[in-house]
Structures are given as C-alpha cells and as structure tokens.
Amino acid sequence: MQESVSVYEGTSRYVQAALSRARQAGLTPDPAFDQRLDRHLPLLAGLFGSLYGSRSDWQEQLAALVVQSARSWHDRPADLKALDAEREGSSSWFQANTMLGGVCYVDRYAENLDGVRARIPYFKELGLTYLHLMPLFLAPEPHSDGGYAVSSYREVNPRLGTMEQLRSLAAELRSNGISLVVDFIFNHTSDEHEWARKAAAGDPDFSDYYWIFPDRTMPDAFERNVREIFPENHPGSFIRMADGRWVWATFHTYQWDLNYSNPEVFRAMAGEMLFLANQGVEILRMDAVAFIWKQLGTSCENLPEAHILLRAFNAVCRLAAPSLLFKSEAIVHPDEVALYIDPAECQLSYNPLQMALIWDSLATRDVSLLAQALKRRHSIPAGTSWVNYVRSHDDIGWTFADEDAAELGINGFDHRRFLNSFYVNRFPGSFARGVPFQDNPRTGDCRISGTTASLCGMEVNPAEGVERILLAHSVAFSTGGIPLLYLGDEVGQVNDYSYAQEPGHEEDSRWVHRPRFPKEQYARRTEPATPEGAVFAGLQRMIKVRSGTPELAGTRLIDFDTGNRSVLAYQRPGSSGEGSLILALANFSDFAQALPAATFGGYSPAAVDLLSEAALQLDEGVTLLPRQYLWLRVTPL
Ligand code: GLC
Ligand code: GLC
Questions:
Q1: pLDDT in tens, 155-180
Q2: Which of 18, 61, 111, 351 gets the highest tally of CB atoms within 10 A of its CB?
Q3: Options 2.40.110.10, 3.40.50.2300, 3.90.400.10, 1.10.4080.10; which CATH number does 188-257 get?
Q4: What is the CA(407)–ligand 1 centre distance, in A?
C-alpha cells in the first residue's frame, strides 16, 4: 500500500511537471481542469499503469495524454462546457421515459448533412431525443463497410458534407432536444488512413500502430484460438500486405486492427475521441468493443484489458469532455455484454439478447427464452441504461446463452439452425423473408439480414406483418431503456433487393436492410388504412403513452409469469414510488389467448390499458387477440 501510494505520487508529480511545462509554453492555466485532474488522475493513472506500466516510458505517455486532454478542454466550446456542468454525474436525463432514439445513414436517408438538418421537424414529430448517424467519416470507396473503415476521424466524407456542417447540425439538434450520436470506430482504421499508409510504406513507428508480422508464425499462432467474423470476405484474422507482411484484419481486408498494446495508439485515439466530443457529439457508439485487446493463446475477444481500456478512455472523458457517454456495441454472449455496462465504462449498451429473443418469440410463438432473459439478465447497474432495438443496420445473430436454453430443454445449436432456416424462408409456413449473412458451412454458423417489415411477414400477409412489427416494438419500448428505431421501420419499409447492383455492396447482404428513404411510404404515414399508416399510428401511440408514463422510466423490471407460453408479461414499477405499476402483456400466438382471473390475483381488479384507454376488470380475466399487446396500469394489493 505504502509503495503504491508513493508510486502514484511520483506519477502525479511527473504529470504536473509536464502540465507546467505546457503552460509555460503557452497553454492557458485552467483551475476547472486542475480540479478535474485532482479528482480523476488517480483512476486514470491506475488504469493506464495497469495497461502500460511495464514499459519504461509509461509515465511520459501518461503525462502527454494529460497535457493533450488539457488542450482539448481548453478548446471545448462554452456551450458544451455548460452541457457538461448540467449533465456530469447525472443519469436521469438518459433514463427518462421521454427518451427515444432513431438511427439512419446520412446519404441513404437524407442525401447529406443538410438533408438531415431538413428532417429535424420530422424527428420532432416522431419524438426523437437521440439521433445516431451512421459512420460519416472519410472512407475508402466503394468498399468502406458502410463507413466502418475510417480514413480520417477528423474529416466528414465529402459526399455528405463538412466537419463544420456536422458541428452546426449537432448544435441545431441539441437546441431541438436531440442528442447527436456517432460511432467511435476505434478497433480498426481503413487501410487508407494516414497511419496505415505509413505502416504499409514500412515506417516502423506506424507499423507498431497495427498488428503486423513479417511471416505466418505469429498469425498462425493467434489464429489457433480466434473466431472468423467475416468468413465470406477472408478466412482467419490476418491478410497479406503488398510487401508480403501480414496484418490483423478482424472484419474486412481493408479494416486493420489497431494495436492498443502500444500506448501511442491509445493517445492518438483519445485525441480523435476528444476531437469528436468537441464537435458536439453527445454519445459515442463504441464499435466492436469485444475485439480491442489481443493476447496470444486466447480468443482475443472480451479480454479483461478490453474493459480496462474502455475505462481509461472513459476517465479521459471525465477530464476533458465530462458529459460524453459511451454506448457499448458488444454482440456477444450475454454474460460478456453485461460486463461492459458500468457508469465507469459504458453507461449505455445495445441489448442484443432482447433483440434476438424478440425474433425467437415471433418465430416460435413461445416466449419462454425471452421471459427467462428478462427475469435473469435485464437488471443492470444504477446509472446505466439499455438501448433496446428490434433491429439495427447489422445482421441478427442468435447470441442467447446455450446454458439458458438448455434449462428450457432447448439445444442451442439446433435452435439456431431452426431460426436461421425460419428467417430465410426455408422453413415451411414461415412468414419471414430474410437473407442469410456470412453463411459458414464449415462451422454451421449463419446470421440473418432483412428489414423489420420483411422479417415480420409484410410481403406475405401485410395485416399480420403490421401486427408483428408493432408487437416487436411494444417490447423494445416498454421493458426499460432507450428505445431505438431504425428509421424507415416506422413506415414498414421492406427489403431492397437491388442492393447487389450497388458497387461495393454486392457481397454484403446487410445492404438488403439498409434501403433508401422511402418517400412514398412516408407520405402514406398519415393514412391509417394503409400498412404504413397503421404501423406509424401504432408506434406513435406507444411513443406518446410511454412519454406520459413515469413508471416506464429507467430500466427496473419485475418478472411476471402468465403461465402461458405464448404470452409475455413483465411489470414496470418506475422509480418514484407511484404505487401503481405498468403490467405489459404481449401475445405472440396466432390465436387468442385467455389468461384467467387468478393470473392477476396480486392486483386490485380495476385496470386501464394505457394504449387504448380501455378499462378492464382483472377479476374477469384478460383475453388477448392474436399478436395483441396491452400496457395495463395496475395497483398491487
Ligand atoms: C460493427 C458494425 C458493423 C461493422 C463492424 C466492423 O460491428 O456494427 O457494421 O461491420 O463493426 O467495424
Ligand atoms: C460480429 C461482431 C459484431 C458485429 C457483427 C457485424 O457479430 O461480433 O460486433 O456487429 O459481426 O456483422
């Protein structure tokens, strides 16, 4: 203990000395920064030291990181500092029942950043408070993995606009109550990034930014334990460079994994992160978090150092962009997903388990796995929130835990095979029109592409398709967390099979569910007799009711067993002790389901369905129509 205190004091003196030198050289002293540093340096130094402490230059690197953060704080615009003061340490704003997210591609949805700006009135009509713009940075053409191969974090793709426009869009969104979310694609850069070009040219400093090896010895050793992510693109995890060396590329050949065992890489990426924060980005979607740390002899996914790294980035935010939040994108085993969720790590997380199990329930008409997940895996730490979604820009992977399934007598491998064949319409009677993604005959692995509407059966039976879309969203909107809409889904947009004609998209079936702005469908959203109008009206109703229902704030959920395998239920108590609860019911069956009065024995008989405003007598039992959902306000006895 004595020793570690003195090590820290030594480190702190080192950092202070570097900061004074920077100030002598012109950086303006700032007491607000000094206070933050006093508060957060012990944590940052501890995290940084545990990643890099074995290197002789680690304190120098840490000091440089702090000086760089001080500069970034100095440059942070006053309006963002005001936001910091308002939000720092508070989670109630993002846990509010009025929070609603939307996600879209700038070009596909609105041509460019000006087009996005022009859609703000629509976003307000919908009730969005959070807008995720898909990656919009400079990227190679035509292959950029939808922008997930970044060539410069400081330049907007010129087709979409400029950094200046992004900054003013962020400000305009904020003044309309909408937080801008963008990706922090920090696991890899494109092979056209300046760092990658220098590495390719043989510059040793930049070669150390990536995982580059002269021959197959190390790649072979790593690949013994590493999963293939995009097997249709290339086998294994390494690709051959023009000069014969091998570089790590988890995703596509042109996405090179950054080497975070090099503290220079951490510092460089922290700089890019703070740059984005100072443009007015309020939430960073931390892309592919599971992969950011590699260690020989392991799967190189979800390693303990990945968490330390995220916490260190988070500690940098506390110094220089205190209101910035992280959202974890970990599409992995649910035990691992949970480990990223913490106020000191990622305050927000996608909820991929709930997403996948909504689709499982729709296919099987059996809610057992979803109910089990809500009971067992929904609870997360105070000060954090889920982001609940029905689908994203990515494929649907069946990331439930095999051990959970086994408890219900379900074999995980067989069940995934069933779900895959169901959703690509190879199963008799399927309503879904999905497309396989990364079908790997060697391992039997496969994932699913398709828009919500197409996977819900819109092409097969529009009336039922509409009901399934709404049923799926009723879960994402009421279990607790920020609901996230893939824009276009709110008007029932179907698959776009012409994707294969677009250069760069032909080999990636995820483009089938990234269609362009459906103008005519949006125009029909106000006609209730059309499928578009029906979906839109149903979602609007949920959004309105949710934002007026304090019990739906936060993420607390109490499980509820209906005794009926087709009817999902859960209770939402809210946080302010209203005395009432919301009991959500959702019938995944194609037949009406009658729940007897005894099911509701714990409540007073009088209840109201908030969605239809109908009064119910629970002592008469409740019958749900096929695919019907109810949000009942009930009073526990
Ligand atoms: C994330 C993105 C996905 C992309 C991958 C590589 O998982 O969601 O679209 O392909 O990262 O960046
Ligand atoms: C893999 C990754 C996930 C990514 C997806 C893209 O499943 O684990 O992070 O979103 O690939 O398809």
A1: 999 999 999 999 999 999 999 999 99
A2: 351
A3: 3.90.400.10
A4: 32
